[in-house]
Amino acid sequence: MLRIECPWCGTRDEPEFTYGGESHISRPPPACSDEAWSSYLFFRSNPRGQHAERWCHSYGCGQWFNVLRDTVTHQIIAVYRMSEPRPQAGDGL
């Protein structure tokens, strides 16, 4: 089980959270092509290593935030609010 640190409530067990998919995805403009729209809806990166994800503290404060997690080891590298930029590998991580 993952132990996730909510930026508002502190560290809690994974069952309190809801996974929201990949972070930092930009919605295409309304006049985009069908290919661009389907790519936005259905295609996500699935990297081996660091991956930015959205999580919601569903059974707590209800806030959404980002988690930078290693997909191989499941180690959580960083937790940051939705308004903050993704931390870079050289930021002391």
What does this structure look like?
The protein is mainly β. It has a single domain (3-81), classed as Folate-binding superfamily (Folate-binding fold, 2-Layer Sandwich), CATH 3.30.2270. It is built from one helix and six strands; from the N terminus they run βββαβββ. The protein has one helix at 34-42; strands spanning 3-6, 10-13, 18-22, 50-56, 64-70, 76-81. It has a four-stranded antiparallel beta sheet, with no helix packed on it. The chain has a two-stranded antiparallel ribbon with strand order 1-2. A hairpin with a 5-residue loop joins β5 (64-70) and β6 (76-81). The longest helix has 9 residues, at 34-42. It is globular, with a radius of gyration of 15 Å. 8% of the residues are buried. The model has no long low-confidence stretch (mean pLDDT 92).
